[in-house]
């Protein structure tokens, strides 16, 4: 009797869960990639946030020599400047000149610079302006000067002489000529002539402010006004120390632009060392500008 025996064939078994494991590995790898990407992003953002930010006020608009000019400086200057055409250009040109003046003045020991007035966005601008004015004054001190005194009598001081324009003019001429002759001949000093005008009460009918307008002493540098009359100033400028000018008729200008005869005057020069080659502040600055590089941004 035959017995049927089944022979089992060897089989290779594949785990049912192998596909699932692959999916899990891919998912984990993807999550790790996202984590790494986020970490790098946060690191970059954190580094960027730590970098100092430059405000618009700290923006550099120009560099003059060794000094940076900031937007903050420009804003302050523009606020104080009339809203005219090309105001920004005019103001920047002024700021460049101011910077050159300060740097050149420090080299000449006329001023001392530090961050409170120089090369800083947080400078004290009022102190800077004061320093620039000091430079101008110090430069002008190096100039030659003209010094002297003038004596005058008005007969049309904003309005005609109380006694009448024609008669007031005649009185003023007669009195000033008499005083001029005495000063020129040495009989009277210029101060005594001024006092004589102040003490002459009859001049109240010629000029109500005759006392205040009687005498003026001056000490000015080259290019500065002595009186309101350019023609009379020219006469004084050519005189040497001790010389007396001629009597001059000065014309004033009304608000409508018309000129009119206003006063008689003369003057004496006590010191005059002004010469044509004496540098003034503007000439000094023009010379200094050749030594500084300017870069606009």
Describe the model.
The protein is α+β, with helices and mostly antiparallel strands. The protein contains 8 helices and 7 strands; from the N terminus they run αββαααβααβαββαβ. The longest helix is centred in the first third of the chain and has 33 residues, at 18-50. The strands form 2 sheets. The protein has a 4-stranded antiparallel beta sheet with strand order 4-3-6-5, with helices on both faces. The chain has a 3-stranded antiparallel beta sheet with strand order 2-1-7. It has 2 domains: 57-142 and 281-296, Triger factor/SurA peptide-binding fold (Orthogonal Bundle); 145-272, Chitinase A, domain 3, CATH 3.10.50.
Global shape: elongated
Strands in their spatial order, largest beta sheet:
4-3-6-5
Structural class: alpha+beta
Strand content: 15-25%
Please provide the ordered H/E string of secondary-structure elements.
HEEHHHEHHEHEEHE
How many separate helices? 8
Radius of gyration: 43 Å
Number of strands: 7
Distance between the termini: 114 Å
Instruction: Give the CATH level 1 class of the largest domain.
Output: Alpha Beta
Q: Mean pLDDT score, rounded? A: 85
Task: Pick out the low-confidence regions.
Answer: 1-17, 47-52
Q: What is the CATH architecture descriptor of the largest domain?
A: Roll
- The tally of domains stands at 2
Looking at CATH, which topology of the largest domain would you report?
Chitinase A, domain 3
Into which percent range does the helicity of residues fall? 40-55%
Q: Can you summarize the main beta sheet?
A: 4 strands, antiparallel
């Amino acid at each position: 009797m035959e017995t049927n025996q089944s022979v089992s064939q060897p089989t290779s078994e594949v785990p049912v869960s192998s596909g699932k494991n692959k999916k899990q590995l891919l998912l984990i790898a993807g999550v790790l990639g996202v984590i790494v990407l986020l970490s790098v992003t946060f690191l970059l953002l954190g580094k960027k946030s730590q970098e100092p930010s430059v405000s618009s006020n700290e923006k550099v608009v120009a560099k003059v020599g060794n000094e940076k000019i900031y937007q903050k400086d420009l804003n302050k200057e523009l606020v104080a400047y009339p809203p005219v055409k090309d105001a920004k250009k005019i103001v920047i040109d002024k700021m460049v000149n101011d910077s050159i003046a300060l740097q050149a003045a420090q080299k000449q020991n006329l001023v001392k610079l530090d961050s409170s007035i120089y090369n800083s966005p947080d400078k004290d601008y009022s102190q800077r302006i004061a320093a620039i004015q000091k430079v101008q004054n110090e430069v002008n001190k190096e100039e030659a000067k003209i010094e002297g005194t003038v004596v005058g009598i008005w007969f049309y001081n904003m309005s005609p002489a109380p006694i009448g324009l024609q008669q007031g003019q005649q009185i003023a001429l007669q009195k000033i000529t008499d005083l001029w002759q005495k000063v020129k001949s040495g009989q009277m000093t210029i101060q005594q002539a001024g006092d004589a005008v102040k003490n002459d009460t009859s001049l109240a009918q010629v000029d109500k402010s005759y006392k205040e307008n009687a005498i003026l002493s001056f000490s000015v540098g080259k290019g500065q006004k002595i009186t309101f009359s350019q023609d009379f100033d020219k006469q004084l400028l050519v005189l040497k120390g001790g010389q007396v000018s001629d009597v001059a008729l000065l014309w004033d200008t009304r608000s409508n632009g018309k000129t009119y005869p206003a006063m008689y005057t003369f003057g004496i020069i006590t010191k005059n060392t002004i010469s044509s080659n004496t540098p003034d502040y503007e000439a000094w600055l023009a010379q200094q500008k050749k030594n500084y590089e300017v870069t606009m941004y």
